[in-house]
Amino acid sequence: MRQTFGAQDTEDASETDLAKHNEDDYVEIKEQMYKDKLASLKRQLTQLQEGTLQEYQKRMKKLDQQYKERLRNADLFLQLETEQVERNHIKEKKAAVKEFDDKKVELKENLISELEEKKKMIENEKLTMELTGDSMEVKPIMTRKLRRRPNDPVPIPDKRRKPAPAQLNYLLTDEQIMEDLRTLNKQLKSPKHPVSPSSPDHMPTTPVEVPSQRYEARIEEGKLYYDKRWYHKGQAIYLESKENTKISCVISSVGTNEIWVRKTSDSTKMRIYLGQLQRGAFVIRRRSAA
């Protein structure tokens, strides 16, 4: 019986020693694993500081590629923007030069039109003075001057208003007016007609055409008001005449008493006076600028 209990105690003691030995081995293995892991981390930290860590090099390579790609895109964007700015600059310069040339041509045409109009007015006034002779001149009245007595007051000079120059309202074209004035001048200078200028024999034989319809036409602030519509420079129109001709034109300039139009067929220019538009010698119609 005692031998049985002794054998059992020995067996229990051996099992306890084995369990204790296994526990010591586990702790030792765990500590060794911790040391290995810590050593690995220290080694990686050292490689990271030296720049030789594989993971670090891999990520740095990726960042470097992204950096170079971004620089390349920035250079391309700068090049495109520079080219666009240069193109806009060239375009603006060309537009400025074209506008300057157009304004210069327009100014020259307007000045030429005004000078030609003044020249015609002067020629008409000169022709009118030649026709009327000395009737336009104010002749002084011959009076006797008496000696003033010592007690008489000093005479006050007579201030008379000078007669206003004659003004003509032309209902005919310039060519018709010039022709009538030449005919009248010939009749006045002819010895076969010694009658007074107020006689009906001195009136021109050319009948004056009374227009059947008059149009409202005027120019204000560089624009033409015609037949209840406004027209401006560069507007596309149709120009109709009494001969039933219809011409496609563009208004090239608007003067003070006339407009210039350019034919779209051959780019020739015509001058139309307000009087011609008012009499209906020419009729303006709008058209689309297609």
UniProtKB/TrEMBL annotation:
The cross-references to PANTHER family, in alphabetical order and at most eight, read: BREAST CANCER METASTASIS-SUPPRESSOR 1
Q: What is this protein called?
A: Sin3 histone deacetylase corepressor complex component SDS3
Location within or outside the cell: Nucleus
What's a single GO CC term here?
nucleoplasm
**Key words, A-Z:** Coiled coil, Nucleus, Repressor, Transcription, Transcription regulation
- What taxonomic classification does the UniProt entry list for its organism? Eukaryota, Metazoa, Chordata, Craniata, Vertebrata
**Predominant location of this chain?**
nucleus
Q: Where is this region: Disordered?
A: 1-24, 188-211
Q: Does the keyword Coiled coil apply?
A: yes
Taxonomic source organism:
Oncorhynchus tshawytscha
What is one Pfam family matched by this protein? Answer: Sds3
Q: Which InterPro entries match?
A: Sds3
Annotated coiled-coil segments of the chain: 31-132
Q: Name one GO biological process term.
A: regulation of gene expression
